Amino acid sequence: MAKSALLKSSIAKKYWMALTGLFLCLFLVGHLAGNLQLLMPDSRLQFNQYALFMTSNPIVKILSYVTYISILFHAIDGIILTVQNKKARPIGYAKSDAGANSSLPSRSMAVLGTLILVFIATHMVNFWARMHFDEKMPLMTHVIEVSPGVKNVFYVGKNDGQYYQVDQVLKEGESVENNPQKQLIIKNKTELYNAQVNVKIADLYKDLHLITIDFFKDKKYGLYFTLFYVFSMLVLGFHLWHGFQSAFQSLGLNSPKWTPTIKFVSKAFAVIVPLLFAIIPLYIHFSK
C-alpha cells in the first residue's frame, strides 16, 4: 500500500481529493455570487458590505480557514497522486493513444492545477492581502451635493445614514491644536474618533470596490491584468471539466441512472462558473 506524509493509501488520497474539490466548488459558487455585484450599477456600498461580511463574520472566517486548508491539501494531494501514478508506470506502453483513452483535461490535471494555484496566490496578493494588511487601503467615500452647486466628499459609516466630511478628518502629522476646524481622526485603519475627547464615533468601510475597479482599469497594466484573469478562468474551466465529474466517480457515486445527470451538471458547471467569473474583469475594463 502506497504511503505519504498526508495519507496512507492512494484510495484515501482520492477520497480526500474528491471531497476538498467539491467543497472548493461550493466556495466558487459563493464567491461568484458576491463578485457578480460588480456588474450591477451603484453597487459600491453593497459590494463593500459583502467584503466586510466575508472578512468579519465568525462563521465565514472559519469557513475561510477551511477553504485555505482545502486548497493546500487539494494541491499537495494532487501532486502526490500524480507522482505515484508516474511511478506505478515507470515505462510507457510500446504503443499508446492517450487521446482515445482519456480527454485532454484529464491528462492535464496536474498542469492545470498548478496554473490555478499560481492564479490563487496572485489573486490573494492583489486583493486579500491589500484588504487585510495594506496600511494605505482606501476607505469608502461618497460625494453629496450639500447645496445647489456645492459638493463635498464624505466617509461612509457602517450604520445607515452615517456620513463624515473628509476635510474634517485630521491627516497624518496634523494635530487638533494646529487644525481646530478638524474634529475627527482615523485610528486602526477604519475607526473614526472624536479627536478632542478620544471617543470612537463610527466604523468606516474599506473600499475593496474601488481597488478592484482601479486594478482592472489601470491605464498601464489593466488590460494585461484582465487577460491574465480571463486566461486563468479558461484554465479553471478545463480543470473543472474533468475534476467535477471525477470527484463523484472517486466517491463511488456514479451509476447508470445518475452518471448522465452528473456529467451534464459537471460540464455545465465547468462552463458557466468560469465564464461568469471571466465576464467580470472584461466588463470592468471595457466599460466607461
How is this structure best described in words?
The protein is mainly alpha-helical and 288 residues long. Helix content is 59%, strand content 10%. The protein contains 9 helices and 6 strands, in the order H-H-H-H-H-H-E-E-E-E-E-E-H-H-H. The protein has a 3-stranded antiparallel beta sheet, with no helix packed on it. Strands 4-5-6 form a 3-stranded antiparallel beta sheet, with no helix packed on it. The chain starts with 9 loop residues before the first helix and ends with a helix. 20% of the residues are buried.
List keywords for this structure.
288 residues, mainly alpha, three-stranded antiparallel β-sheet, 10% strand, disordered N terminus
Intertermini distance = 59 Å
**Average pLDDT across residues?**
86
Measured as a percent range, the helix fraction is 55-70%
Count, helices: 9
Uncertain segments are: 1-7
Let me know the number of strands.
6
Q: What structural class should be given to the helix and strand makeup? A: mainly alpha
Write the element-wise H/E pattern from the N-terminal end onward: HHHHHHEEEEEEHHH
Q: Going across the major beta sheet, what is the strand order? A: 1-2-3
The Rg value, from CA coordinates, equals 24 Å
Shape: elongated
Detail the topology: elements first, then pairings:
Blueprint (H helix, E strand, L loop, with lengths): L9 H26 L8 H13 L1 H31 L9 H4 L2 H4 L1 H25 L7 E7 L2 E7 L6 E3 L18 E4 L3 E4 L4 E5 L4 H10 L4 H29 L8 H28 L2
Antiparallel strand pairs: 1-2, 2-3, 4-5, 5-6
